[in-house]
Amino acid sequence: MTATASQEAVGTEDQYRENKFMFYISALVAIFGAVGYQYFVKRVPVSLNPIVSVIAMYVAVLALGVILLPLFPADGGLRHHLSLLNGRLDFGPYVTRICWRSH
User: Residues 101, 54: contact at Cβ < 8 Å?
Assistant: First the structure.
């Protein structure tokens, strides 16, 4: 095994560990998100307009995301990753969710 092959093996192992770590982080985010959603949705007053409630939830999630962003820096910068979206945002699920919450 040459030095280069050895370095590649170590790099692959490190990448595997990082992917495994992010797998568990994403699972925890999903679990806490689902539990948090149920908790906070029950705290919303019944008299509140559903659209206002959904907007407030999205603003709160956006604020939380901005706070957590420094903990998970994007390789190449945030601007690079936003440019990768390149119009690939599908607003269908968001519109459906808002309409569903309105009823």
Answer: yes
